[in-house]
Amino acid sequence: MSAQREMKEKNPWHTPVTIIITVIGVIAIVALVTVAVLQNRPVSQKYKYGIVLDAGSSHTALYIYEWPAEKDNNTGRVEQTHSCKVKGKGISSYASEPWKAGESLTLCMQEAEQKVPKKRHHETPLYLGATAGMRLLNMENSSASDKVFQAVEKALQKSPFSYQGARILSGQEEGAFGWVTVNYLDDRLMQGLETTGALDLGGASTQISFVSDNYDGSESPSNSVAFRLYGNDYNLYTHSFLCYGKDQVLRMALAQQTQSGPRTILDPCFHPGYTEIKNYSVLYDSPCVSDRKPQGAPVSFNHRGNGSFGQCQEIVKSVFNFTSCKYSQCSFNGVFQPLLQGPFGAFSAYYFVMNFLNLTDTSIPLDTVKDKLTRYCATPWDQIKLQHPNVKLNYLEEYCFSGTYILTLLTEGYNFTSESYSNIKFIKKIKGSDAGWTLGYMLNLTNMIPAEAPDSPPLPHAGYVSIVTIIALLLVVLFILSLRPLWPRCSKQPHII
Ligand SMILES: Nc1ccn([C@@H]2O[C@H](COP(=O)(O)OP(=O)(O)OP(=O)(O)O)[C@@H](O)[C@H]2O)c(=O)n1
Ligand SMILES: [Ca+2]
Fold this sequence. Notes:
CATH superfamily of the largest domain: Exopolyphosphatase. Domain 2
CATH class of the largest domain: Alpha Beta
Distance between the termini: 8 Å
Strand content: 15-25%
Low-confidence stretches: none
Number of strands: 16
Number of helices: 17
Structural class: alpha/beta
Helix content: 25-40%
Bound molecules: cytidine-5'-triphosphate, calcium ion
Strand order of the largest sheet: 8-9-7-6-13-14
CATH architecture of the largest domain: 2-Layer Sandwich
């Protein structure tokens, strides 16, 4: 027993000093690792937010975006976390009762207050951008459009967010920001990959935006937007056709058929058996058609359908003007368009319509697509209603017309061929965020896409943590080895009892 005690006493490991040194050493190293890891950990809980209201011609939608706080000016990490569809029509429809335009936003604004953490409210920028509906109202009656904006501003200023203003986007901005959104979400900008063109179809205007190698912006400069993003230069071609959104084109198609002021029209773009009484003054109440209102027409007309895709396409074609082009090449209405290039993402009403018609698969040959649409248009209205009891009638009645318009716009208008048609993808969302101009608009206004490529850290976070841990472990081992002279030698010698 006494020999054992002697051994213990002689064992330097068992001296209090060594034990204390070892414990302190280990604690110090653990602390070093912990501090390094915590200090450099992405502050994943800390998010920033931004809100954009898309005041479209047919409706308003609110989008909330979120990104990790320390990645403001850096990598493509902004995501849409929530969206809210405002009840009712677009703000431009409240021209005669502007206060209602402000009121209409209340529910979605309350929802946003709940979705964005309270302590971030005051620092969350809030933007409202209006598109073709307000462009048209502004053209038609600028004091009415000012009043709508005043009402909207009043409502938004009341919110706890950092309100940054409401304005009408130019068609060029609308097209360019839609393109930025699509390419940002696809991670194409930061990596300098070939970009995707953007096709946006709204109710009152439509946009086409793409990069074409043989386009340097010199021909028709008004269609050119130059960007430097993440160190890459882009010469974007973009054009917005006001009045070529699907609701306004429908008005133009109906105007085409009612020039003589008839009491009944048999419209090939509507299903056989469809019959509605429509008002001339309502139909012609838009700057897209107002100058064509027939003189001495009756109050209303009977709008009847006969469902013929071929005849409908002829009417739709007549809303395009192909006669004059002062450039090397044009799409329609004398608008310059360079050679189509690359993949395209087609969103908003392109997606709603083609998705409803089960025609989003663009690997289906264009002729087959036309055959399917021909059969759909020829289906009697009663049968269509029975087949889609849950679809709103005001949407349902228009899909034959809208499908015909989309195919005509793409092929006759923009010159997609049966081959290049397959380059189009009908999309709604990319990685959870809606395709549309709003994200690009916010990224631009918050300077979140730098012109130059961000300096990347020498090591990714995981690599950094691993290296710190390995070095720390090495230090522990070295520390233990450095105490080697003090190690007990008893294991090599037989115990003497
Ligand atoms: N499920 C849906 C939803 C919408 N629509 C139609 O799609 C068009 C609206 O498209 P949208 O992109 O929302 O247009 P806005 O943004 O309101 O219009 P703009 O961009 O021209 O201002 C409208 O004709 C609407 O009837 C549809 O057919 N089916
Ligand atoms: Ca829109």
